[in-house]
Design goal:
Elements lengths: L1 H17 L2 E2 L5 H5 L5 H14 L16 H7 L3 E2 L8 H18 L7 H10 L2 E2 L5 H5 L6 H12 L7 H5 L6 H7 L3 E2 L9 E10 L5 H8 L22 H4 L8 E10 L3 E9 L23 E9 L9 E12 L27 E4 L9 E9 L3 E17 L8 E2 L5 E2 L7 E4 L2 E5 L5 E4 L1 E7 L8 H15 L19 E22 L2 E12 L2 E3 L4 H8 L15 H4 L13 E13 L2 E10 L13 E10 L3 E10 L21 H4 L11 H4 L7 E11 L4 E13 L4 E15 L2 E12 L10 E13 L5 E13 L21 E17 L2 E11 L6 E4 L2 E4 L3 E12 L4 E17 L19 E18 L1
Parallel strand pairs: 1-2, 3-4, 18-21
Antiparallel strand pairs: 5-6, 5-38, 6-7, 7-8, 8-9, 9-10, 9-11, 11-12, 12-18, 12-19, 13-14, 13-18, 15-16, 16-17, 19-20, 20-22, 22-23, 23-24, 24-25, 25-26, 26-27, 27-28, 28-29, 29-30, 30-31, 31-32, 32-33, 33-36, 34-35, 36-37, 37-38
Helix pairs in contact: 5-6
């Protein structure tokens, strides 16, 4: 009986203590629930963070705002736990998990950024030796924050700890909270220690909507006179059907990274996209032949932030795959991925200089060697790369390359007879006995293909489609072929060998002010890039001459103005881009910008005589307010594949490559758009702000963008703002409004559209860091009137022909997070939407998702820390929706009256997608 009462007493004591607030572990919000003022709660929190952990309750008296009366009132409500020192690496790994979750919740992490920031978290830098570019490459650390720290260090005032860092004049609270995990103050927390990370990821990533439509586009023959050819409804007449893409084809990633202290780093990644053959996913029928090394990325590097022979000088040296980024991304920022409205501030950052690259970037990856050296007043980077690039190639009917001779003429394999090879160059013999050599492949442009199959496999598919386009006429029929009767442009793997070298030089006469020069030259020693002018463009990329007069010339100038190495005025085998960037900090405002030129037929040493792009921005920062203003101007013929700057849309948006895929000689030409990484030619001004009035009201990220699309002069405006009300810390009400008007300068134009989006969200922050949100969204899209709905227009009072169309759609969703314990977490969402022709979108976990016309989706994700060094993430998603596979393309031709019976029409169908993502991370 005595033991029973002792047990009850012990349980009672435990329950009593558990009900108290632990001064050593409580969050700021938990401290604010105590019967004290907000200022006192913040003083307690900062004392524990910056001074020391509490040894007893009486340590509270060391805080000036806590008097004896307050202490007496707190005694029965608080407790002080025993503080146990833990391994620094383990602490930082937990910080990484929390940080990456915050990063993903801020509209997704930029591709490859998270890897670099995670590396910085594991190998922090000495804050007293960091340079300007080091600071501004970190998330939510501004140029004003960087200058505040650099000026203090320059005065000889060494920063000794986090409390000292927070007291730096001019350093914002957001800058401090994001910076503190990346730095140390005297000795590195992880010194002369080997750290190893291994990650395996399996992801059945669905195709995006544009890729889906492109691969479903069917090859259909032309008519025999007035009769349509009868073709069996064979799904193999599209790339989707031929390759049976409906089968599960996962992305597979194996990633290995090793670090020794803060200096030596190495990494390896094998990325196997859908149906590709790599280290993790291989099949005899996969249709790929690239070896493991070609299909992998790797690097080895050395970094030293304080060279022993040069005081306050940092060195980076990398071999293998790396990223190079400078200025505003106009000259050089190599990535395969596009991000709209990439300002370079907040989480939308650029990591300046040379960094290792284990991202999924393939087409614009740099593989070679790079060196960077810098001190507070001067910096220099030199980089070289030698890699084979995929390209859109001009091909013969048999699938072989069209070549170019010495005189810039095409050499077709079916016209030139025999050839012999000498010194790896084809020599063609003509009927008159003359000999020319053609050692250059005729290519259209770089391309980042959606389908990963090798050239031989693609040629087999193209041969099948060519047979479909050219059927055998029946008795009494006269067949009229298309203007382009075969696939003349197709993706070819490793078609172009690119040798690239570049330089960046930078001077900084005073702290916070710099002037930089960047240039690169890409040499194409086995190919010519040939893009015809607009008059020749349509016969080159359009199959049926019927469409030649139907397509808008101005807008498609983005395609016809792509870069060529051979034109009527010059012939060369390279591309060169030159640019300048500069920036300065004035008080609490930073001003920065970049100017770039693509060398075409002007003088490399003269500004303004070649296609150009420039961007200037200003960032003003206060404690609870920031303001960004930006102006950009990108010429239509400034086509730089290594540019990744701010814009509203990617290049080729709304062109024939998106709107008229059905008319292309090969639907996969659209990959130039579907996987574009460049900014659209635009001229515009952009404003952005965020303001926290008090603890109750916050104007969230709000922006206004007014811009003109330079290819056709379309002027647009986009506005978004949100207001959050927090009556309690645990409850948030958020209202967001978005408005966009295209062609606002001419409301009678066919290109006008007006979009309004209204969103209301109720968010609850529960105990144990749980979260629940209910969101409702309502959209309207007002489209302009058609001048006629029939061809030719019917006489009479056709009111429908002049009517404007209003489309409406709505969306309701529930998002939730539940922490079972510190090692197991569940996240999920359920959404139902009805679009009525409007495209809805959703930030889902770590990516954006665009939905169809009507449907529902649900997903659930589990994050588990299986052991101290092993982490697992498992996500399952089901999305079921209705949509149109392809739009009805009524050509307004009486002879095509039964068009809807042909392969070009698919009725409204229901899709069901199941997605699985599994990743395992092992770190020690």
């Amino acid at each position: 009986m005595k033991k029973f009462f002792l047990m009850l007493f012990a349980l009672g004591c435990i329950g009593f203590l558990a009900a108290k607030v632990d001064l050593n572990t409580a969050s700021l919000q938990e401290l604010m629930q105590l019967p004290i003022t907000e200022a006192q709660a913040r003083d307690i929190y900062e004392y524990r963070t910056f001074v020391k952990i509490f040894d007893s309750i009486y340590d509270l008296r060391e805080i000036p705002s806590i008097d004896q009366k307050t202490l007496d009132s707190l005694k029965p409500l608080v407790v002080v736990s025993i503080y146990t020192e833990t391994d620094e690496v383990s602490i930082r790994r937990q910080e990484i998990r929390d940080f990456l979750e915050r990063l993903d919740n801020n509209e997704g992490a930029s591709e490859g950024m998270a890897d670099v920031w995670q590396d910085y978290l594991m190998t922090p830098q000495n804050v007293n030796r960091m340079h300007f570019d080091d600071f501004i490459s970190l998330p939510n650390v501004s140029a004003i924050d960087a200058v505040s720290i650099l000026k203090r260090v320059a005065r000889g005032d060494t920063i000794s700890d986090t409390r000292d860092l927070r007291n730096t004049p001019g350093l914002s609270y957001y800058g401090y909270t994001n910076l503190r995990n990346y730095v140390y103050f005297s000795e590195p927390p992880v010194k002369n220690r080997i750290m190893f990370d291994a990650q395996v990821q399996y992801y059945t990533r669905p195709y995006e909507e544009g890729q889906y439509d492109m691969l479903h586009e069917a090859f259909v023959p032309k008519s025999f006179g007035n009769d349509w050819v009868t073709v069996p409804h064979d799904k193999r007449n599209s790339y989707w059907g031929y390759f049976n893409v409906d089968q599960v084809q996962p992305d597979m990633i194996l990633k290995l990274r090793m670090r020794y202290g803060n200096n030596i780093k190495a990494g390896f990644m094998n990325y196997s996209p859908k149906a590709n053959e790599g280290l993790l996913f291989s099949s005899e029928d996969s249709g790929t032949d690239r070896d493991m090394i070609t299909n992998s990325k790797y690097y080895a590097g050395y970094e030293n932030t304080n060279l022993p022979w040069l005081d306050n000088t940092a060195l980076k040296l990398y071999i293998g795959h790396y990223r190079a980024t400078y200025g505003e991304g106009l000259v050089m920022e190599n990535t395969d991925f596009y991000s709209a409205r990439k300002t370079g501030f907040g989480f939308s950052k650029r990591i300046m200089g040379i960094t290792p690259d284990l991202s999924r970037t393939q087409e614009y990856a740099l593989r070679g060697a790079a060196i960077e050296i810098k001190n507070p007043h001067f910096g220099a980077s030199f980089f070289v790369s030698d890699d084979k690039k995929d390209a859109l190639a001009y091909i013969n009917p048999d699938g072989s390359y069209v070549m170019r001779d010495d005189f810039g003429n095409d050499v077709f394999s079916d016209e030139t007879g025999q050839y012999y090879v000498e010194n790896n160059v084809r020599h063609y013999t003509y009927d008159d006995g003359s000999v020319v050599h053609a050692d250059k492949r005729k290519l259209f442009s770089y391309i980042n293909p959606t389908l990963p199959y090798d050239n031989e496999t693609m040629m087999e598919a193209e041969a099948v489609f060519n047979d479909v386009l050219n059927p055998t006429p029946g008795p009494g029929q006269n067949y009229t072929p298309f203007a382009m009767p075969y696939i003349n442009l197709a993706t070819r793997k490793d078609a172009m060998r690119e040798k690239l070298w570049g330089t960046h030089l930078q001077v900084s006469p005073i702290i916070g002010t710099h002037l930089g020069f960047t240039t690169y030259t890409a040499l194409y020693d086995n190919a010519h890039l040939i893009v015809p002018d607009f008059n020749q463009l349509l016969p080159t990329i359009i199959r049926d001459s019927y469409y030649y007069t139907k397509l808008q010339k101005a807008l498609n100038s983005e395609v016809s103005n792509m870069y060529s190495t051979q034109t009527d005025s010059y012939s060369r085998d390279y591309r060169r881009v030159i640019g300048f960037d500069a920036g300065t900090v004035l008080g609490n405002t930073s001003i920065q910008g970049e100017y770039a030129e693509l060398s075409v037929d002007g003088d490399d040493f003269k500004l303004g005589d070649d296609p150009k792009a420039y961007l200037v921005s200003a960032h003003t920062q206060f404690e609870n307010l920031y303001f960004i203003s930006m102006f950009r101007n990108y010429d239509v013929n400034f086509e730089n594949p290594y540019s990744n700057s701010f814009s509203e849309h990617e290049r080729f948006n709304d062109t024939i490559l998106e709107k008229n895929i059905y008319a292309l000689t090969n639907p996969t030409i659209s990959d130039i758009l579907q996987n574009s990484n460049q900014s659209q030619p635009e001229r515009g001004i952009y404003f952005e702000t965020r303001y926290k009035f008090n603890n109750y009201f916050t104007v969230g990220r709000s922006y206004l963008d007014l811009w003109e699309r330079l290819s056709d002069g379309r002027r647009s405006v986009r506005f978004q703002s949100e207001l959050e009300f927090r009556p309690l810390y645990q409850l948030g009400l958020r209202l967001r409004y978005k408005n966009q008007v295209n062609r606002y300068d001419d409301l009678a134009d066919r290109g006008v559209s007006k979009t309004n989006e209204y969103t209301l969200a109720v968010r609850t922050f529960l105990s144990n860091r749980d979260f629940l949100e209910l969101e409702y969204r309502y959209n309207t899209v007002l489209s302009p009137p058609y001048t006629s709905l029939t061809y030719p227009a019917e006489p009479g009072n056709n009111t429908m022909a002049a009517a404007m169309t209003l489309m409406t759609g709505d969306y309701i969703g529930v998002n939730y997070t539940h922490n079972f314990n510190s090692s197991l977490k569940m996240q999920g969402s359920f959404i139902y939407w009805y679009g009525h022709g409007i495209s809805h979108w959703d930030w889902e976990d770590m990516e954006i998702d665009f939905m169809g016309e009507k449907g529902a989706k649900a997903w659930v994700a589990f994050s588990s820390r299986i052991s101290n060094n092993m982490y697992m993430n498992l996500k399952f998603k089901n999305k079921t929706y209705q949509d149109k596979e392809l739009r009805i393309r009524q050509n307004n031709d009486p002879n095509h009256s039964n068009l809807t019976d042909q392969l070009t029409y698919f009725d409204r169908v229901e899709h069901s997608e199941n997605t699985i993502r599994l990743s395992l991370d092992y770190r020690f």
